[in-house]
Amino acid sequence: MKLGFLASKNGSNMQAILDACADGRIPASPSLLVCNNPSAFATTRARESGLDVEILNGKLHPDPDDLDTSIRDTLLAYKIDLVVLAGYMKRIGPRTLSTFANRILNIHPSLLPKFGGKGMYGLRVHEAVIRSGEIETGATVHLINENYDEGPILQQQSILVYSHDTAESLQERTLELEHSLYLDTVSRIAKGEIVLPSD
Fold this sequence. Notes:
Order of helices and strands: EHEHEHEHEHEEH
Shape: globular
CATH topology of one domain: Rossmann fold
CATH superfamily of one domain: Formyl transferase, N-terminal domain
């Protein structure tokens, strides 16, 4: 199974998966990073792990349809089997969504459908969890579709919200959970233990 990543920032979830591929926990071949931000640390992580890096963004492709086509065609050119979003801050276009239907994974730092949707990312999610008084939160790995955070859920795992938690401390603990849950999901897909829906 060939993996392609889309990232915009740090790429820590991508790194966790790359490490698991390198030591055999995930029987897959990471091949490509598509990044919209040429200065993102994710690009350094990818190159150090031997991935090719393609910078594709609105500056290089001002027309959204052209950008969408370029992302799709790049993933196709590398024969990517599974697309893994790792902190990708842009919406996936309809051509890429259609071509890779049920083959694009995302991880969200809450127990979807709670605290999902447009604008719900990063610290905003954890701030909302704390404001709500929830006693647990967690992470969700799901397939993406045309609506934010509404694709089919593949795996979830929860952690407790402590009375002394801040948004920052909750984010830190949730990120540790994300790393383990994301690589477990990718591993189970690669091994055939999780069967993705057919197109």
